[in-house]
Amino acid sequence: MKALLHLVEKMKPAFSKGGKLEKLHWVFDGLETFLFTPGHATERGSHIRDGIDLKRTMSVVITALLPCLLFGIWNVGQQHYQAIGQLVGLGEGFWEKVLFGAVKVLPIVVVSYGVGLGIEFLFTSIKGHPIQEGFLVSGMLIPLVMPVDVPLWMVAVGTAFAVVIGKEVFGGTGMNVLNVALTARAFLFFAYPTQMSGDKVWVSTATDLNLPLVDGFSGATSLGQAATGHVDRIASLSDTFWGFEAGSIGETSAFACLIGAAILIITGIGSWRIILATILGGAAMSWIFNLVGANDYMRIPVLHQLMLGGFMFGTVFMATDPVTAAQTNTGKWIYGFLTGLLAILIRVVNPAYPEGVMLAILFMNVMAPLIDHYVVQANIKRRLKRAAVQTA
Amino acid sequence: MSTETALPVKPAEGLFSKKNRKLITDPLNDNNPITVQVLGICSALAITVKVQNAVVMSLSVLAVVVVGNMVISALRNLIPGRIRIIAQLVIAAGLVTLVDIVLKAYVYDVSKQVGVYVGLIITNCILMGRYEAFAMGNKVWPSALDGLGNSLGYAWILVAVATVREITGNGSWMGMRLIPESWYAANGGGYFNNNMMILPPMALVLVGIIIWIQRSRNTKLIES
Q1: A71 & A189 share domain
Q2: Most buried of the four, A21, A40, B121, B190, by CB within 10 Å?
Q3: A209 shares its domain with A282
């Protein structure tokens, strides 16, 4: 650590004003503050500084995402070996599965970060502002919501679109209206539907690593099966909870998501109100469908419905995005509840969208400022009334 | 407002005097009907999936705005102020119908694709905007130039947006294949057309990007 600090201090003058590499100042600044908490002090206005800055916040979220990533890597291998009929058991061939998953998943992560950070650096040098670290989390979220067989250039296109149109046009980190990772996914979902949905993309049947080719293997997700009327073929409750099923890379395991949720809630970075409200909203809608019970899909038990698909992942990591969610506490309850409600509603009622979480969260992202507005107005009205009573 | 043209006679202006040239060049950039005045957006969204349609649409608008501007400018002293909108609409409707019939007669295939939108030119705000704001108060020649300038300003945005949408969404330009068939996944390649580009929202995003680039280069357009 000491040696690293010395190195950074030694390099600093070259990047400062008048130094040889002045142009790269903000790039250097970004890396420096990423390694060490900057010693800045507030000069004007309020002198209170939170002990944790944006980079540290992002690191916690990344930590919370690690269980999902690691499980996702293993599960990609597991689904693959299951499809080709080798090492089918869950306990067999752990390292082969991890290796296969890593070969498949890590390139997607690298592309997502490479493209996203490249664009951030570009905008940084054009606009001359400090590097914004908001992409650290988005760059990890994007691979986790992709199907495993997505072509890498699509990841690049989606990431570029999300960073430029989803974030930079609004003014960069902290100003975006829509969740960046979901913008990338929504863009790809509508742009390349054959590569982002259906039953061919969720399980990698590629022949890398000299494994036998499987022709025409259909690896639909549980939700894909349900949307096409095969509710009897969805994964069992325990499989959906632990995540032994096909799906986007990082979202299959509700258990891994709950570990992440615990980390986020304990460190106070994710809002427990939103997480709880979203689960309640989803449960309420599933329960209403249970009561209606018009078809098999509606009769899926509440708990099972919540474990399916990306519901838990979206709830924990995307609905809670502090920038795009509602800001007021009451607003968070409303926002979360409606997100969960809509997610299940879209999923069950509209067969064109097997998973409704993405659209529900994006829709509520747009609604969040409106919710906040009315919450604030209601508060003002209540307090005015109280003031009027006291003076009367 | 229509009868206030009895100004003292000025010395005759050249046909392409600086002022007249400005009538054409202004709407191309500083006063572009789509990106600055934000008029005619609906057709920019609807008609820009293919370059060919965009070109046909642009030419139709050009005909309707230029001829309409000239006719209204010629009649400006005869049209009573209180019913001027209706009078303008009648002229516009006549011209739009004419254009529609011409398209049907000569480019039937294209007409089938853009037909609805040609009929809807009459609701294009650029049209009524130019009639009301310019032709009603100016002579015939400047009105024609103003119509030409505004339709060209409209046209280049339409064609630019359509170019991007057709190349990315369909792999072709003006019907010519740019991205070879062999690249597509169906033929063993790894390429897919971007279906998002064909959906109307992307046209809005592309127009937004043009506005973004334009304003970052042309700083006087930035509102304080």
Answers
A1: yes
A2: B121
A3: no
Instruction: Kindly report the nearest CA distance between residue B194 and chain A, in angstroms.
Output: 5
- Calculate mean pLDDT across residues A190-218: 64
Q: Specify if A240 maps to a domain.
A: no
Q: Which of A165, A188, A222 is the last residue of a domain?
A: A222
Same domain, A320 and A199: no
The beta-carbon neighbor of B196 closest among A151, A190, A195 is: A190
pLDDT more than 90, % of chain B: 24
Residue A195, chain B, CB below 8 Å: the answer is yes
CB contact, 8 Å: A170 with chain B?
A: no
Whether residue A258 is contained in a domain is answered as: no
Domain-embedded: residue A173: yes
Residues A192 and A331 grouped into a single domain: no
Q: How far is A177 from chain B (nearest CA, A)?
A: 15
Domain hosting A214: range is 19-28+47-222
Same domain as A336, residue A191: no
CA dist., res. A357 & res. A25, Å (int): 40
Is residue A249 situated within a structural domain?
A: no
What ipTM did this prediction achieve? 0.79
Domain positions in chain B are 33-221
- Greatest mean pLDDT among A28-32, A51-55, B79-83, B117-121 lies in B79-83
Q: In this structure, what DSSP letter does residue B176 have?
A: E
Neighbours of A137 (CB within 10 A): 21
Q: How many domains does chain A contain in total?
A: 2
